[in-house]
Amino acid sequence: MKNLVKIAALAAVLVLALALAVVAGDYGPWYFAWMVGTVMIVLIAVSGAVLFETQAIAASTHPQQ
Amino acid sequence: MINPTIVDLSRLQFALTALYHFQFVPLTLGLSFLLAAMETVYVITGKKIYKDMTLFWGKLFGINFAIGVATGLTMEFEFGTNWSMYSHFVGDVFGTPLAIEGLMAFFMESTFVGLMFFGWDRLSKPAHLAVTYIVALGSNLSALWILIANGFMQDPAGAKFDPTTMRMQFRSFGALVFSPDAQAKFVHTSIAGYVAGAMFVMGISAYYLLRKQHREFALRSFRIAALFGLISTLAVVTLGDALGRMDYLVQPTKLAAMEGLWHSAKGPAAPWKLIAIPNDAKQKDAFSIGIPYVLTPLVAHGWNVTIPGVYALERDARARTISGIKAIIALKTYGTTHDPAALAAFDRHEADMGYGFLAQRYAPHQDLSAITPKEMPGVLAKTARETIPNVFVEFWSFRIMVGLGLAFIVVFAFGAYYSLRNRLDQHPLVLKAAMLAIPLPILACEFGWVTAENGRQPWTVYGWLPTFQSASSHGLGYMIFSLVGFMLLYSLFIAAELYLMFKFARLGPGVHAIPVPPASVAARPLYGQPGYADKSWK
Looking at the keywords, is NADP present (chain B) (predicted)? Predict the structure, then answer.
């Protein structure tokens, strides 16, 4: 049930994103590009930090590597 | 007509306040989303170091935010005090985004900034994270409404001139908000702020790494900022290209000045001038070096396209001025007689009305109907010449901005690469470059602003209202007094910002960290690693 709710929530986000893309596309896509781009930039920065932690744990577990 | 010296002083005052204010804005835009990214990592991993990171960079964000708000407030009042004719002419349209900015974005931003700083112990982790994201969104929404207002000045979409009230009035709010110029400008400016924020964090982290201080803190901050900055810089260059294309479509005089195009450039072999020394007085280059086959695809996104140069645009402006003079004379007649024939005559020439206003400066006693046939060629030539912004300023401010933007890609790319490989310590040159580059994105933003606003001249509303007719009729003494006052006050703000930023950056993150018992610190694998001998952190 929990997974179903998650999938439904993600589907709703997808539908919202598509609706925004259609509306924005009629006028020019830049606001939409900003929203998507900002989320992507933040997520890449976050994943870089998470990767840092993984690398650090790996380095402490296998110091010779 | 307003005294030209008053107009120049009004322009100088607004330019200075905007340039001062714009030293704080990019950092606010960028740091806010960087804080959100750092706090996201804290919520995901639960590692306290990311909370301390959010607190430390948040402190610097707070200093910048407070001074940024203080310096920005005056600008909105300046429209009323120094640009009253402009405010009268377009207030119905231009005032709307400014009001929305004040009511929605600013209050949202300010309220949630308080929660962000003081809500750590009162909110759950996800709730506080949501607050930080709202602060970031609010900061950027402030920029959005300001840039929608600016977009209207660049390309007055969504408005129509009303000959009865003699004001621009709303035709479509949607057209104003979704104006392509406003959209491209907002996205380009906002993401340029991300670059400034990322360089700030990366540069200060590099400073710590070079001094072997706060190492674990600095390595993580550097990683986040380098990746954030690299993607942002790539985006800002791409979006800059989109904005350049907008200028090609709606502001051909700005584009001609930006590219130093005296003669029209016929594709596909037209060169893009890498460097040049444009001479505005002689309307030619003293020297130039160009790269063939670059200009046309770069600007027009096509090959066999002709891009109009200054001479062609001046010819066009002469024709439009003749039409504009007819529009103003018809408007004047309609204003006194309400004759439908005069209104019909005005409607035929309405699109060129701004050129008529521009020509008034050179008409005897600013009366267009008094221009004799003998005087007309001179009036047309002077008016046409005035429609071209200062080419030297435009050409070089644009190139400095672009050059800096391309240099940032290199700095961020090396920083991200060596950070991802954990090899930053072996490359002090990259760290030094990152440190020295801290102020450069702000400088690039300033040059970007000069490119946008100098390129709009001689108009406050492009093609509709000349700058010289937009100012208030103040006395010279008032203008000089207020100008000097602004300069002194704003210089004080800059000094305060620099002092506080240097002070807290030098003190480092340890000052802001919540003390952690050594045992729990040791339990975290990263704190126990060699190299983490940073006592000030604890």
Answer: no
| Residue in the structure block whose two tokens are 């970031």 | B136
> 3-state DSSP: chain A helix, strand, coil percent, rounded to 5?
90, 0, 10
Q: Which residue has the higher pLDDT, B479 or A19?
A: B479
**Any CB–CB contact under 8 A between A4 and chain B?**
no
Lowest mean pLDDT among B89-93, B237-241, B374-378: B237-241
Average pLDDT of every residue of chain B? 88
Long-range contacts of B285-288, Cβ-Cβ distance < 8 Å, separation of 24 or more: B285/B260, B288/B260
Give dist(CA B337, CA B344) in Å, integer.
13
- CA of A50, closest CA in chain B: separation in Å? 7
pLDDT computed for residue B437 by the predictor = 95
Greatest mean pLDDT range, B79-83, B329-333, B361-365, B431-435:
B431-435
Q: Give the number of other CB atoms < 10 A from CB of residue A10.
A: 10
* CB-CB neighbors (< 8 A) of B239 in chain A: 30, 33
- With a cut of 70, say whether residue B408 has pLDDT above it: yes
Could you please report the per-residue DSSP string of B293-308? TSHHHHHHSSSS-EEP
**Distance separating alpha carbons of residues B303 and B269, to the nearest angstrom:** 8
Note the pTM of the prediction, 2 decimals.
Answer: 0.88
Q: How many CA atoms lie within 13 A of B126 on its CB side?
A: 0
Question: Which backbone phi and psi does B265 adopt, to 5 degrees?
Answer: -100, 120
CB-CB contact of A35 with B191 (8 Å) = no
Strand pairing report for B306-307 and B459-461: unpaired
- What is the distance between the alpha carbons of residues B293 and B302, in angstroms, rounded to a whole number? 11
Question: Are A59 and B37 in contact (CB < 8 Å)?
Answer: no
Closest CA to B141 of B14, B25, B16: B25
Q: What is the DSSP letter of B348?
A: H
Helix (H) or strand (E) holding B499: helix B476-507
CA–CA gap between residue B48 and residue B467 (Å, rounded): 54
Q: Which long-range contacts (CB under 8 A, 24 or more apart) does B430-433 make?
A: B430/B206, B431/B206, B431/B207, B431/B209, B431/B210, B432/B206, B432/B210
Q: Which helix or strand (DSSP H or E) is residue B276 part of?
A: strand B272-279
Whether B221 and B205 have beta carbons less than 8 Å apart is answered as: yes
pLDDT greater than 50 at residue B403: yes
Assess whether pLDDT exceeds 50 at residue B535: no
Tokens 């435009």 belong to residue: B394
Q: Is the peptide bond before B518 cis (omega within 30 degrees of 0)?
A: no
Cα–Cα dist B138/B68, whole Å: 14
Sign of the CA dihedral with B441 first, then B442, B447, and B450 last: positive
Restricting to A residues 28-57, those with a Cβ less than 8 Å away from any Cβ of B are 28, 30-31, 33-34, 37-38, 40-42, 44-53, 55-57
CB B6 within 8 A of CB B480: no
* Matching residue, tokens 């997974």: A3
Does any CB of chain A come closer than 8 Å to the CB of residue B226? yes
